[in-house]
Amino acid sequence: MDEIDDFDRQLLALLQIDCRQTGDALAEQVGLSPASCLRRLQRLRRIGAVEREVAIVAPELLGRHITVLSLLTLRRGGRDALDRLRQKLLRLPQVERIFHVTGPADFVLTVRCASMEAYAAFTEEHFYDPAISGFESIVVLREHRPAMPDAAH
Amino acid sequence: MDEIDDFDRQLLALLQIDCRQTGDALAEQVGLSPASCLRRLQRLRRIGAVEREVAIVAPELLGRHITVLSLLTLRRGGRDALDRLRQKLLRLPQVERIFHVTGPADFVLTVRCASMEAYAAFTEEHFYDPAISGFESIVVLREHRPAMPDAAH
DNA sequence: GATTAATCGCAAGATTTTCGCGCAGGGTGA
DNA sequence: TCACCCTGCGCGAAAATCTTGCGATTAATC
Asked: Where is the HTH asnC-type domain positioned along the sequence (chains A, B) (predicted)?
């Protein structure tokens, strides 16, 4: 039913790098016909193996020049407060990812802002919350991303 | 030249959510013709505003069931050693992101492995390195992702 | 060894993207 | 103010790509 075979795994690996490859390109790399590759891709999308296909946008061009890892420590309280906080954080455009983690901190967020000043304002607005007992900020000096192997002509 | 106007920003916002929309769909949302949208998209790719377009794959289906944040502290040493380490980390399939950060740690990685056991093996193989003086692991219990607003079918 | 189910490749048809063209709006300088 | 250029628009044709029906092949089951 939802079985993933080696062809599927190959396709997923390729699509994780570049999801805009044509059926022909995929076919050549995995050794199937273009039609079969695309049929498999349809299925992978349908069963949720491919959750989404998204563009990665240069953050500076959206005016988000700095990245910070925010470690939030929550006040022990009801699940409701926690859910509410989570929902709120999910909706903030500055919040890129939310990890619920083990250890002294409860959440680790990756946050992107226009400037340090904007991050300061962000923390003042959102981290001084009844559900949050404290936070720590780790500033990202630079992010290293795996390059795309073959920036098409 | 490389100017980003409001149409571009709208397109980028839409493509960040779903980069597989057709020219027609984009056109309807931003109020331009399909051809113009696609021409802008070509340009956004060319100037690097759209860095990549990737599929987000359900990690379990790739056999990567757990996520860990690894905080690496480096031994003070030459730039060469640091560069070499960075290059090495970039190539590991388990390493999803690499942040070079301020604070006591030098690097924060997001690492995906099949199991805790696999993570342990991973650390033994890669974190006991002359360039690394120590590391801390924060296990991700759960990740909350912003949902895609309208899974078209 | 027959039957069933899955999936392949092929190729026609539908959809989407690319691109040349002519035109409108906005600066610029005489 | 008036040419003039430059940019970006929409239109529509051509090219590229994706989808799907079909018969054939293969693997598994009984």
From this structure: 4-65
